[in-house]
Amino acid sequence: MIFGGFERMVAMRYLRARRKEGFISVIAGFSLLGIGLGVATLIVVMAVMNGFRHELLTRILGINGHIGIYGTGPSFSDYDPMAEMIRKVPGVLHAIPTVEGQVMVTSPVTAVGAMVRGVRPDDLLSRGIFKNILGSPADFQDGDGVLVGRRLAEKLGVTVGDRITLIAPKGSVTAFGTIPRMRAYKIAGTFDVGMYEYDSGFIFMPLDQAQAYFQLTGQVTQIEVFAEDPEKIPEIRRDIVRQARNGVRIYDWQQSNASFFNAVQVERNVMFLILTLIIVVAAFNIVSSLIMLVKDKGRDIAILRTMGATRGMVMRIFFLSGAAIGVSGTLFGLALGVWFATHIEAIRQFIQGIIGRDLFAAEIYFLTQIPARVEPSEVVTVVLMALGLSFAATIYPAWRASSLDPVEALRYE
Questions:
Q1: Do β-strands 111-119 and 222-227 pair in parallel, antiparallel, or remain unpaired?
Q2: What's the rounded Cα separation, in Å, for the pair 7 and 211?
Q3: Rounded to the nearest 5 degrees, what angle is found at the Cα of 334, between the Cα atoms of 27 and 352?
Q4: End-to-end CA distance of the chain
Q5: Of 330, 282, 349, 409, nearest in space to 39 by CA
Q6: pTM of the model
Q7: Can you say how many angstroms the Cα of residue 143 is from the centroid of all Cα atoms in its chain?
Q8: Does the pLDDT value for residue 255 go beyond 70?
């Protein structure tokens, strides 16, 4: 073994401070606690940032699709043949013709703006994100109703079975001028995808109803393409471009949300760098505590040297003392961080119950729950970094201890 039994015994004994060495022990304890909290904080923050990216990506792509195909004008008509062609491209799960438009939604309580999307009922209900629908999806499939976001329904003060009125921004032109295009629809159900922006501003209706309402008979505004792997969109896009006719415009989710996800990635990297400083500060505490320990144990070191201990043995003793602090703190932080990240939503609910305030407003953070996704590779990186900094912090004090001259140390004893 690298460390002998005598070296391990002396190193552990030095960590158990006696009364006159209590201050050194306190500093070592704070060093251990600092490393533990630094590791735990890094693990929790990285898990939450990963969770945010994953949840936002899942919900954004669950609603919007991975690729949007548009005509040269505001709409195009030969959408079914093109959708069938796109479905044959390797890696494509669904190609869904869609009609999209903005409306004003009114109810007996209030009026708000919303986005209407018309899709075929089977295409919509086949998406996993719409599995939990409160109400009667059969009414939606029969073409006699619409699906409304849960938070939008709360704003309007309506429930399943009530009726809402949609007002289109472009009215019908008559001899008496432009008349707003209005129509009442029954709420067949409400959906909750867990993202505030969509739950509070989207309405889905059958494709034929949307075509009639927006006066796009036999036309759609886009074809939404869903892929098996969102990360392989560039390859799928190239295949679609090769097979699609000229005159179509293609936008993928990376183009549409590039600035948003780049901002999340930059924030994640900056947070990692800032929180790493906590571990660096704790490593400096290890240096200071070991230097004080070496100074206090000068006579013991001299006696060990005169009894035959080599410089390497003394260096390993103090290296082991500092490493024990770093390893213990890292393991403590690892356990605390993984546990906290795993139960972060339950902890939030508990704290909210005590203080009576909302700590995670969906209107601000987009999501209704705090997401956390622990990546094993990142946890390993954090642990190795903490151990590396801890071991590096012990080198100089251990070298000073091994360089101590026994004659100088015992001259005034």
A1: unpaired
A2: 82
A3: 95
A4: 35
A5: 330
A6: 0.65
A7: 37
A8: yes
Beta bridge partners of 249: 70
What pLDDT score does 347 carry? 81
Per-residue pLDDT tens digits for 78-105? 888 888 888 888 888 888 888 988 889 9
- Total residues belonging to the chain: 413
Write the CB contacts of 367 (distance below 8 Å, at least 6 apart in sequence): 52, 55, 56, 59, 194, 195, 196, 360
Residues 205-236 pLDDT 10s: 988 888 888 888 888 888 888 888 777 778 88
C-beta separation of 56 from 367 below 8 A:
yes
Question: At residue 19, what is the residue type?
Answer: R
b/e 210-230 (16+ beta carbons within 10 angstroms → b):
bbebbebeebbbbbbbbbeeb
Structure tokens at 321: 């003392």
pLDDT > 80? residue 364: no
Strand 145-149 with 177-191, pairing: parallel
Does 198 score more than 70 pLDDT?
Answer: yes
Read out DSSP for 279-342? HHHHHHHHHHHHHHHHHHTHHHHHHHHHTT--HHHHHHHHHHHHHHHHHHHHHHHHHHHHHHHH
**Position of tokens 């013709």?**
97
